[in-house]
């Protein structure tokens, strides 16, 4: 990623079927989640919950959202007491290892703050160290089949992430400019 790259963060609306279809295709390829399930899930988010898309120079490269229902509930129903989950964070393979995931997570957290959400949870069995580096704390470990699943929590506030990649005006502190756009290709 270059300093001249333009980053756009966009909240996907229920009428943007082309973006929902794109995100659904990524999830189907990565996690075998059926496209219809993803389409329904993203299309039915409310005013608090959302799903975002990050683009570089107009090209969609990453996605994720804040959701209430996540698949780990099927393994441990006690986790349903937590309201807000950072979920389905995905970066296209050719863009991984370039800081895009951190930028996406910072944008999702900032959007959550705008909606007065101050505490998030997530679960992962592949990216625990990534989230630790983003100041997430381990709250529970679940051993399921051959997976060691970390359940993590983060209290977010405006002062906590002063060293983050983007500020509340979507201006980069370190790398580039992130702008909220109404249209992504």
TrEMBL record:
Residues in coiled coil: none
Superkingdom of source: Bacteria
Pfam families: Acetyltransf_1
GO CC field: cytoplasm
SUPFAM superfamilies: Acyl-CoA N-acyltransferases (Nat)
Keywords: Transferase
Residues covered by the N-acetyltransferase domain: 10-157
MF GO annotations: acetyl-CoA binding; N-acetyltransferase activity
InterPro entries found in the cross-reference section: Acyl_CoA_acyltransferase (IPR016181), GNAT_dom (IPR000182), NAA80 (IPR039840)
Keyword Transferase carried by entry: yes
Protein name: GNAT family N-acetyltransferase
């Amino acid at each position: 990623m270059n300093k001249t790259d333009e980053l756009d963060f966009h909240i996907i609306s229920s009428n943007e079927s082309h973006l929902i279809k794109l995100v659904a295709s990524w999830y189907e390829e990565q996690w075998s989640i059926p496209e219809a399930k993803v389409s329904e899930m993203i299309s039915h988010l409310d005013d608090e919950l959302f799903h975002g898309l990050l683009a570089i120079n107009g090209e969609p490269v990453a996605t994720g959202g804040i959701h209430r229902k996540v698949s780990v509930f099927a393994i441990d129903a006690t986790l349903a007491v937590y309201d807000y989950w950072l979920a389905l964070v995905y970066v296209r393979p050719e863009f991984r290892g370039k800081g895009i995931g951190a930028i996406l997570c910072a944008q999702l957290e900032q959007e959550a703050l705008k909606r007065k959400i101050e505490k998030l949870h997530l679960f992962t069995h592949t990216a625990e160290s990534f989230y630790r580096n983003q100041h997430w704390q381990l709250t529970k470990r679940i051993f399921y089949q051959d997976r060691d699943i970390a359940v993590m929590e983060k209290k977010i506030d405006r002062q906590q992430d002063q060293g983050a990649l983007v500020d509340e005006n979507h201006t980069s502190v370190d790398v580039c400019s992130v702008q909220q756009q109404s249209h992504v290709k």
